Amino acid sequence: MGGNYRQMKTHAENFLERVADVARAVDAEAIDRLAFKLAGLRAAGGRLFLIGVGGSAANCSHAVNDFRKLAHLEAYSPCDNVAELTARTNDEGWETVFSEWLKVSNACSRDAVFVMSVGGGNEEKKISVNIVRALDEARRRGMAIYGIVGRDGGYTKKVGNEVVVIPTVDAGLVTPLVEAFQAVVWHCLVCHPALMHQANKWESVTVIGGNAGAAGPEQR
User: Fold this and answer.
1) How far apart are CA 129 and CA 141, in angstroms?
2) pLDDT in tens, 21-56
3) Does residue 158 contact residue 147 with C-beta atoms inside 8 Å?
């Protein structure tokens, strides 16, 4: 049995192979186009509103930090305000939490919505309807719509201006690969020459004595 086992791929080996498959298949030109769109948004003084649910909501929070700190792009996410998010869910319903947030933020045609989602929203299947409502509100306000989504892109891809769709390479690994590659793509964006304004900390650290692996306690 031991010999047969060693001939089989482990889950980790298979997963990492699928990661490589996605990396080869993702549309690099779409990422470049999105970087230039976001640079134009910044130049025009527009704001970027990031929305997502579940793991994608957490990715929105991380991405807001990176867009603000590294790209000097004014960015926000309702996912960071749990008090408002839960109050609106409790009093008004989950489907309108993002659209109402855009209204209160006085979002306008100078601004943009950025969706992170596995499916991109599908009203017919009642999946992430709050994203669909938010995009309808964004369209009413003349906002640009960007995103990083999976599967067929859903409503986000249908109505978006520039949307990166993470290819499906394994039907059993859609969610983990899409959410992982949301991070890959937005990190590609914030270090893109068209968008990056400030270097990451480690890339700006001067290596002393040629030992790139050495770091003080405050850097570990």
Assistant:
1) 19
2) 999 999 999 999 999 999 999 999 999 999 999 999
3) no
- Burial label, 14 (beta-carbon count in 10 A; 0-12, 13-18, 19+): middle
pTM for this predicted structure:
0.89
Percentages of the chain per state (helix, strand, coil), in multiples of 5: 55, 10, 35
Residue 50: alpha-carbon gap to chain centroid? 8
Give the pLDDT band (50/70/90) at residue 170.
very high
Instruction: Sheet containing 162-165: give its strands across.
Output: 75-76, 48-51, 112-117, 144-149, 162-165
Q: Under CATH, what is the fold of the domain 23-194?
A: Rossmann fold (3.40.50)
- CA 186 distance to own-chain centroid: 6
Q: Are the C-beta atoms of 118 and 149 separated by less than 8 Å?
A: yes
First to last CA, the chain: 43
CA distances from residue 150 to 118, 142, 185 in whole angstroms, order as listed: 5, 24, 12
The yes-or-no verdict on residue 1 having pLDDT over 60 is: no
Cβ atoms of 168 and 151 within 8 Å: the answer is yes
